[in-house]
Design goal:
33% helix, globular, Rossmann fold, 18 helices, 6-stranded mixed sheet, 24 strands, alpha/beta, 510 residues
Length: 510
């Protein structure tokens, strides 16, 4: 008998059927991969199971008993926990404080029993070999360590069913390996795990079974990943063959187009986050930066797009010095895909149509004589929606109504639909399905092949290796390696990203 059974699940939003008569099941002790394109309904289905959303129709059963959840606390009480794609941690709190938040053990009825909490958290850390300090503050931890804290929160609540939403989106290959070791250990102790993911190789590596959703419908409920290929799984998801493993090196790299010299950035505590780095990008070249998030990538993005004033920088485009604020950089032809679409790329309450023109709303094709040209804006938005496959029935709807992947498509469409000289892109396909990834990658290649320059920052090694013509590895605010993207294996690049020297890594290889 199934541990979890969901039957006839239907969920509608205004103008959109997110799920229609979906049946879902999960067995005890299995790892299930839930696959589907952006907007297919994967996260919505799991939010219903977790009590964050309420289905319009359908039933949920746990061990054959029908249940109804009005909020996540109801689901947690039945052993279901969800680790979200965007971590829900308080940076200034310690690991223990984050883990116990909301269910703090007490003594004398009124006071938190810190010793009991710390002992329990340390016991879980040791049991699962998480190798993190229970007293460390979240802001001092790497992304991989923060994810372990999220899993600790679930284990502390005695979760027997764990839902992971894009768990490896921001992890290095080594951290992914560590995550999979943890998941297999949890599985061996009877935990049932659902992984929502777009990474098909990871599905093949970790999952016992895969289910596929397409446009809110369940199309396959029992796919054996061990008997499938990446191409077969991608075809099940999108209905056509997808290739994401072929590189397209530039056929014509010209002279230096974009140059950054002696870039120094300090944070608000006076600590140097970038330590005098320099780089050039040539016409028809994609320069990729690989690195674990938090090693200076954000500061590079903010400096070269005019969002901050560095301690030191000399930046030129086609020999002309660039200074000023973000508006001046946009006017010079520097397009920016920010690393966090929700806080920097979009205004959630505004329409999809209006988000397509953010940053360009003073341009003549958008605004004339201080009046918005809504007819032209609507036509532009419809063109962006169609070209970038944004799944929405109406571009007048708020952008917050879109799935995360479709929101990312809005950001990409806004920038790539404009005439730019330089594209500064951070994690351009984060949260996208394989079909949309293929499209966005091709758009970046096409932009480069027009003789333009691309600065790419990504923690996703498959992406940065595939797209880059030249690769730099960033660690603790310094460039520690510069190479051809194929010079090192992904595992070796992962070691460079975590502080190992080039000589050490080459020595390991020999």
């Amino acid at each position: 008998m199934e541990l979890i059974k969901m039957t006839g699940i239907t969920k509608e939003y205004p103008g959109t059927v997110a799920l229609k008569d979906v049946d879902f099941y999960l067995k005890k002790g299995e790892i299930l991969s839930l696959l589907g394109e952006n907007g297919a309904g994967k996260t919505t289905l799991m939010k219903i199971l977790y009590g964050m959303e309420k289905q319009d129709k359908g039933e949920i059963y746990i061990n054959g008993e029908q249940v109804s959840f009005s909020n996540p606390n109801d689901a947690i009480a039945r052993g279901i926990c969800m680790v979200h794609q965007h971590f829900m941690l308080v940076p200034a709190f310690t690991v223990t404080e984050n883990v116990i938040a909301g269910i703090e053990p007490t003594k004398n009825k009124y006071f938190v029993d810190h010793k009991q909490a710390e002992d329990r958290v340390r016991e879980l850390i040791n049991r699962y070999n998480f190798n993190i300090d229970a007293d460390a503050k979240i802001e001092s931890l790497s992304v991989g360590e923060q994810q372990r804290v999220e899993i600790l929160k679930a284990l502390y609540r005695d979760a027997s069913i764990l839902i992971l939403d894009e768990p490896s989106a921001v992890l290095t290959p080594n951290e992914v390996d560590e995550l999979f070791v943890t998941l297999r250990k949890l599985q061996s102790q009877g935990t049932s795990i659902v992984i929502i993911t777009h990474k098909l190789r990871e599905t093949m590596s970790i999952a016992d079974r895969a289910m596929v959703l397409r446009s809110g419908l369940l199309t396959h409920d029992s796919v054996d990943p061990s008997l499938s290929s990446v191409q077969e799984l991608s075809e099940l998801m999108v209905g056509r063959l997808i290739r994401l493993d072929n590189r397209q090196p530039s056929e014509k790299i010209g002279s230096v187009m974009f140059s950054v010299k002696d870039l120094v950035v300090k944070d608000d505590r006076g600590v140097e986050r970038l330590k005098g780095i320099s780089f050039d990008i040539r016409e028809g070249e994609i320069l990729g930066f690989a690195g674990v998030e938090g090693n200076g990538q954000t500061q590079i993005l903010e400096a070269v797009t005019g969002l901050i004033q560095p301690e030191s920088i000399e930046m030129t485009l086609n020999g002309e010095i660039i200074t000023g604020d973000a508006r001046a950089h946009i006017d010079c032809g520097i397009g920016h895909v920010p690393e966090d679409r929700s806080t920097m790329g979009l205004v959630g309450g505004m329409s999809i149509k209006s988000n397509f023109i953010l940053g360009y709303h003073g341009y003549p094709d958008v605004c004339k004589n201080k009046l918005m040209r809504w007819k032209e804006i609507y036509a532009f938005g419809e063109n962006c929606r169609e070209n970038f496959q944004v799944k929405t029935p109406n571009i007048e709807a708020p952008v917050s109504s879109l799935s995360g992947g479709n929101q990312q498509k809005v950001v990409m469409a806004r920038v790539l639909s404009r005439e730019q000289k330089v594209l500064v892109a951070a994690h351009p396909t984060r949260g996208l399905d394989v079909g949309a990834m293929e499209y966005v990658h091709q758009q970046i290649f096409d932009f480069r092949d027009q003789g333009k320059a691309v600065l790419l920052i990504s923690a996703e090694l498959d992406e940065v290796v595939r797209l880059s013509d030249r690769l730099m590895v960033l660690f603790e605010g310094k460039i520690v390696a510069e190479c051809d993207p194929t010079e090192f294996t992904k595992t070796e690049l992962g070691l460079l990203m975590t502080g190992h020297s080039v000589e050490t890594v080459r020595g390991m290889a020999s």
